Amino acid sequence: MASPYAPPTADEAPAEGIKPSPGWAAFMSLLLPGLGQVYVGHTLRGVLFYAAQSLALAAMFGLSLRSPWFLLFGTTSVWLGFRIGAAVDARALARRSAMARGPVGVLVTAVLLIFGGRALDSATRATVVEVDKIPSGGMRPTLLVGDHVLIDKSAGLPARGDMVLFEYPEDRKKNYIQRVVGMPGDTIRIDGRDVFINGEAVPKCEVGAWEDLVIFVEWLDGGPHLIGHATWKAEVSRTWTVPPRSYFMMGDNRESSHDSRSWHGGEGHGVPEDHLLGRLTGIWFSTAAADNFARIDIDVDGASLPPEAEGLLPALERCLESGPAPPAQ
After folding, report:
1. Contact, 187 vs 241, CB < 8 A?
2. Is pLDDT of 176 > 50?
3. How wide is the angle at C-alpha 118 spanned by C-alphas 116 and 122, nearest 5°?
4. What is the pLDDT of residues 75-91, one digit of tens each?
5. 3-state DSSP call for residue 179?
6. What mean pLDDT, rounded, does the chain reach?
7. Residue-wise DSSP of 187-202
8. Exposed, middle or buried: residue 35 (CB in 10 Å: 0-12, 13-18, 19+)?
9. Edge-to-edge strand list for the sheet holding 213-220
10. What are phi and psi of 95, to 5 degrees?
């Protein structure tokens, strides 16, 4: 009888696992940082790689509120850097590992990593920063169709003159970007092209014609920005009182904007405070100009001319130097 302490025979020895392929390990981590580490049996190391990349990307999104260049180059550098680093690390680990992890375990881990990354991305977009694309011309000449903008989701309540993202009061599944003109309790009167807030005319200065608009500089609480009026003059004269905890919104393209003046069947309506989603802070990419990056550095809180309107720059500078001038009555 064989001794129970004798070593197993060749027929009784457990089969060796499949040795991991360094090439496959590197390829997996190029696709999803950390997945190659999971494949070669270093699951915790892989999870840490993926978590570090996700946190670094979230940080770049947050820093993009300071400068849109962080979103363009910071996220690209993080995306490439972590993939290359993870691929090199996974390849080295595969050369030293004796057994690869089974495909089911790798697949399950990949799904969990992707789910966790999506959850972090959603949390970042819900609480820190969101990116949106301008689909229509209601904010011309400030924002153009094809501008991709950054929204600060942690900005708090807006000030007069801010451009904000909000849920459309008639359908909260739709989001709009418009400018805050009226604060809670304000009385807003529109008389043709002129805006009056609590009886005071909002100052403006004509810059000149551009495309189908006449561009003006308008000052809300002292801050200048551009607005556009149609070449024909509106004869509308109406007054609204902004409800408590609500804001009166207007598009900068005054005759072509569906805003607080016309909602609810033409009666007009403010945007309740709980509909506000964030404040627009910058443009990070644009297809509105031949150079997709030309609009990144424009001051969205100031008076910046759109492309192909450089001929109006002297008139704009004269308006800004002269300061606010009330509209003719």
Report:
1. yes
2. yes
3. 120
4. 888 889 999 999 999 99
5. strand
6. 86
7. EEEEETTEEEETTEEP
8. buried
9. 204-210, 213-220, 223-230
10. -65, -25
